[in-house]
């Protein structure tokens, strides 16, 4: 994931569209998009939050749902997908990987899967028994996911 500057409206629009092309959830907030779609780190400022919220609001197929509480993000202005997601015959993948389990990559990197969703595994690298670095998203049908071995 490449970090995106929200100061450039064209780059932000492209990053949001790119993220939504693979995002399978029905609800989203600006903080989730900041961390997961834009590679944001730390706490975004008011200008970043406003730009991201406006970008979501101006994306076809998303409706403002007002404030909702998220487990990870607290109360946030939320948007709901209004169009039915076309899954192109894909099946749910939650059963393929165990949540909270450790998996080893061929290079020896150990990953902890914190969430297994329809089209992505959300993982963190584990070093010295602790999760480190930014969240890593892996498509479950990718060669990378197929190479994972339970540790």
Topology, pairings included?
Layout: H1 9-20, E1 27-29, H2 30-37, H3 46-57, E2 62-70, E3 74-81, E4 102-104, E5 110-116, E6 121-127, E7 130-138, H4 143-146, E8 149-150
Antiparallel strand pairs: 1-3, 2-3, 4-5, 4-8, 5-6, 6-7
How do you describe this structure in short?
The protein is an alpha+beta fold. The protein has two domains: 9-81; 93-150.
Report on this structure:
The chain is α+β, with helices and mostly antiparallel strands and 151 residues long. The strands form 2 sheets. Strands 7-6-5-4-8 form a 5-stranded antiparallel sheet. The protein has a 3-stranded antiparallel sheet with strand order 1-3-2. Helix 1 packs across helix 3 and helix 2 (30-37) packs across helix 3. It is globular. It has helices at 9-20, 30-37, 46-57, 143-146; strands at 27-29, 62-70, 74-81, 102-104, 110-116, 121-127, 130-138, 149-150. The model has no long low-confidence stretch (mean pLDDT 83). The two termini are 25 Å apart.
